[in-house]
Design a protein that fits this description.
single chain, seven-stranded mixed beta sheet, five-stranded mixed beta sheet, 14 strands
Amino acid sequence: MDTEHVFEQAKKWILEAGERIRSSFDKTLNVHTKSDPNDLVTDIDRDTEKFFIEKIRGAFPEDRILGEEGFGDTLSDLEGVVWIIDPIDGTMNFIHQQRNFAISIGIYENGKGKIGLVYDIVHKELYHALEGKGAFLNGRKLPKLERASVKESIVAMNATWVMENNMVDHNILIPLIREARGTRSYGSAAIELIYVATGRVNAYISPRLAPWDYAGGAIIVEEAGGSVTSLNGDKLDMLNKSSVFAASPGLHGEILERYLKAGKIK
C-alpha cells in the first residue's frame, strides 16, 4: 500500500463528508432504531457510509470495507487492505446535540494499523496518524503523551459501567473512579480515544464496542505514545466486538494491574 497516497485520498474524502454532514444540520433527520431504542441510525449515517464506499471502490477496487451500517463487505479475515469505517460515531449526540460526534476511519494492511483518521466535524479538528510517523491534529504533530498516575488522571467512562451490568464487574471500576482525579463521558468512542491521544483525558474504558468505533482512534492513540488493548490487556479484535482500554504511558499498566485484573470481565 502506498500509505501517503491512500492517506491523501482518505483525508480529502473525510473532509468532504464532514462538509456534507454540517450542511445537514438544518434538515429534518429520518431517525431509526437498530438493536434497541438507544441504538440509533439516521439517513445521514447511511448516506455517508455509501459516500465512502463509492469513493474507495472507485479509487482502490481491490480494498475491502467494513462499515457500521452494513454497506461494505462481510469479512472473516483482515488480509490485504481493509478500511474500517464509522460514518458517524456518536449518532445519539449528532441527533440530540449536533456536537460530540465524529467520522472514524482505520485503514489496516494484513491486520496491522497503517492509517487512522478521526474528524471532529463541528470543531473542524482532523486527527490522523500514519504508522511510525506520529499523531497529528490539523497537520500539526501532537507531542508524545506523558506518564501519569491514577490520582493525577481524568478517566473517560460511561456511568453505566459503574452500575450493575452484564459486561463487567462494576465493583472493580468503583475504586478506580473513586481514586482518579475526575471522570468524563462524551458519548463517542472516537472522540474519547482522540482525547486520550491529546492528553485531554488520560484513560478511556468501555466494556463493549465494535471495530468501527475504535479502529481509527486506536492507531492515533498508539502513535501518540499511548496503549490500547481490551480490558484484559489483549490485542483488540478488528473483526468482532471487544472491550477497549486506552491510556497514557504508565497509567495503562497501573490501571490494568491494580484494578482491571482484580475483577471479572464478563
